[in-house]
Amino acid sequence: xxxxxxxxxxxxxxxxxxxxxxxxxxxxxxxxxxxxxxxxxxxxxxxxxxxxxxxxxxxxxxxxxxxxxxxxxxxxxxxxxxxxxxxxxxxxxxxxxxxxxxxxxxxxxxxxxxxxxxxxxxxxxxxxxxxxxxxxxxxxxxxxxxxxxxxxxx
Length: 154
Hints:
This protein is α+β, with helices and mostly antiparallel strands. The chain has 2 domains: 1-31; 35-128, CD59, CATH 2.10.60. It has helices spanning 2-29, 131-152; strands spanning 35-38, 50-53, 56-64, 67-75, 99-104. The strands form 2 sheets. The protein has a 3-stranded antiparallel β-sheet, with no helix packed on it. The longest helix has 28 residues, at 2-29. The chain is elongated.
């Protein structure tokens, strides 16, 4: 009985040290010391939809082609000017109908929870035409003027 108790205690003691060893190795393999943020850009700085920063997690909503577009990424500390209230994390004080921005640093992936909504466009102000449509219209107007000049001056 006494021998069995010693073997059991020795096994539990070794198992405890083995678990501590595994945890310490795991901590070395995951050397994350910064804030992890959700990221939805298609770049090398955003593997597996995460990025790491020593600054803030960033979330913004903008209106493109009449639809809301959400952007999430990291902002490094060196990019924050002024550090106590960075311009990058501020939406203008006037009623901005095209972009809303917010930053957070209270927990990992805190920006994933931020769903910023833009106010609906005012009915009197139609949505601006996309840049491609305006460029196409301009090109057609120039071609038409060129055609008229060719007819008038053969």
